[in-house]
Specification:
Two copies of one chain form a homodimer. Helix content of chain A is 36%, strand content 15%. By secondary structure, chain A is an alpha+beta fold.
């Protein structure tokens, strides 16, 4: 009798290997292919499945169609002590944002804080990947991005001129898991909608409405629905200002100019992102800061709970637990995703994903 | 027959005069008293009535009780090219934040961006007052603060360990009103709750719940209710990270340490705030940036509308219209507020508010 194959667990390194081989096959430099593969596997490791391996066939399709530059000259076009503007030359967003984060960290180390924007970038995966990069240096990271397709109208409107424009904030701790908030400014991100679509599951009420304002729960109609912003006009406002800061400020696409990268494999998206790094060492003893954060975390966790609530979670705590488990046991890959990756392997002529079948 | 006195309109300069005289009477330096008065009148001018003159009797009460330092030595305690930490010496929050904003603007002019935090500050009025300060220099302003009383539990919890911790973002435009988002991370701010309390109006459902999770609409019970965060756990996460960045990072109060300044007139609040200024001139032609923002604004405003919607508003547009009208016609002051300011004038022995009675 066959073992239950749903879902199979694949080692993180094997996901990295697979993605890196796919990217190298379609023309990325070996080092770049590996870097993107590592970030996509990390997305899976922390449970961001809507922004992980699921995107690989789509990324490959856009690269093969000429929508993404496989040999980008990613360069700093404006620079001051505490800012830089990075032109990604239409390379993979992961590469552009990794570079932007490195620059922000280096500048924050001397200036105390630094803001780095990108243009001519592309979809880069989950926001928290980049907000987390300053954590490794003991710094705070804040990341903003213009989403890669417009699914949100202005409050009261019908024209989808805005995206789920996310924010991620990562704050270092001493002994607790870092505080990592990663959220779309809509109730649900399109990544979550796409996960439901791929699994054939209905959308929870409150995620989307149709053009008459009625709840839309049929995930097959996900691309025609309007996402709902958090807090009504407040989420609309957050999406707008994050988009102006991550997109318009950098000369990247925003509003009407945003290319729907699901529907269009060829057009340059000119995606914009921004990262802010802040060095707590500039404010005093960074160890004391981290211990004060630990105290706040523990006080919140110890709060009296509403009836029926088992546990108070901190932002990033659930993904931290997934990160630990997935690194140890492998990443759960559902059959539908496995099938699409097998198909991709066949098309590209690279070795199939190993492991996970028992 | 008497003219209808509800509400009377008072010139902005008269509100400034009144507040400045009140503060000088209770011991602030003349220049400081005037500066706080100007900012409180500006709050009224832009329609932030929950954070304007309504707060004056409370501020005066705390000053007279010794809870606020009338002669603060506001000073920079840490500094780098793109950051500063300002110790407010328990002075009025308006003075501390005005200083912090000036420093952020000056540093951003050379470094491209700058982050300035405060500690030992106090309640400073509406968030947008400070986010707007960089606008005058053509810059982007972002402001975060730890609220001055905890009314929000962690998601799923009952202990009120968090506040409405607001964010304001101000973005310059060319011909359009600036984009100015000013929002609590809760559905309603305590300022709005207090305005309802003062007017004896019920709270809209969705603003607050009681400890059993039931909607709380009786504004007389406003101080015992739990505010609801925007987007559920997302608003909880935003309140937490804004509080860690505006409070904990600066060595200011956060979580359990936050003093309820409504209930306690004596304790030092050690309020924390943060402001980020970004100079668009560092990213390219700032005029082009402002015109691109105008384009986004106009595209959003021109969106097709849902049935029953008369107009698409941009963040800050309604307060901009109030600002224009109130500057021209005077600020509407409701009878209950007028009565409390008359009472204050009597107690302090300063001239009553002039004007507005016809």
């Amino acid at each position: 009798m066959a073992a239950q194959p749903i879902p199979s667990r694949i080692p993180v390194e094997e996901l990295t290997r697979f993605a890196a081989e796919a990217f190298e096959k379609v023309g990325l430099r070996q080092r770049d292919a590996r870097a993107v593969g590592e970030l996509m596997a990390e997305a899976e490791m922390q449970g961001s499945e809507g922004h992980g391996m699921m995107r690989l066939p789509h990324y490959v399709r856009r690269i093969r169609a000429g929508g993404v530059n496989t040999q980008p000259n990613i360069r700093v076009v404006e620079e001051r002590a505490a800012m830089a503007l990075v032109d990604g030359d239409n390379g993979m967003g992961h590469l552009v944002m990794k570079r932007a984060a490195e620059i922000a960290i280096a500048k924050a180390r001397s200036a105390g804080s630094a803001w780095v924007g990108t243009r001519m970038s592309n979809h880069a995966g989950p926001a928290s990947l980049y907000a987390r990069m300053p954590l490794a240096e003991g710094m705070v990271g804040i990341y903003l991005a213009v989403g890669s397709a417009n699914h949100l109208p202005p409050w009261g409107g019908l024209d989808m001129l805005l995206s789920t424009n996310p924010i991620a904030v990562a704050i270092p701790t001493e002994d607790e898991p870092p505080v990592v908030l990663d959220m779309a400014t809509t109730i649900a991100s399109m990544g979550k909608v796409k996960t439901k679509m791929q699994r054939g599951e209905p959308l929870p009420e409150g995620w989307m409405v149709d053009r008459d304002g009625r709840p839309l729960t049929d995930s097959k109609r996900g691309f025609e629905g309007l996402l709902l912003p958090i807090g009504g006009y407040k989420g609309y406002g957050l999406s707008l200002v994050f988009g102006l800061l991550a997109g318009t400020l950098n000369g990247a696409a925003m509003g009407k100019d945003v290319v729907d990268f699901n529907a269009d494999d060829v057009a340059t998206t000119n995606t914009g992102q921004a990262i802010l790094a802040i060095d707590p060492a500039a404010f005093g003893d960074p160890g004391e800061f981290r211990r004060r954060v630990d105290t706040v975390v523990r006080d919140l966790r110890a709060s009296e709970r509403m009836p029926g609530v088992d546990r108070i979670w901190l932002p990033g705590e659930q993904s931290h637990l997934k990160r630990v488990a997935n690194e140890r046991d492998g990443v759960p890959i559902v059959p539908a995703l496995r099938a699409s990756l097998d198909k991709l392997a066949g098309e590209l002529g690279i070795p199939h994903l190993h492991g996970g079948r028992t």
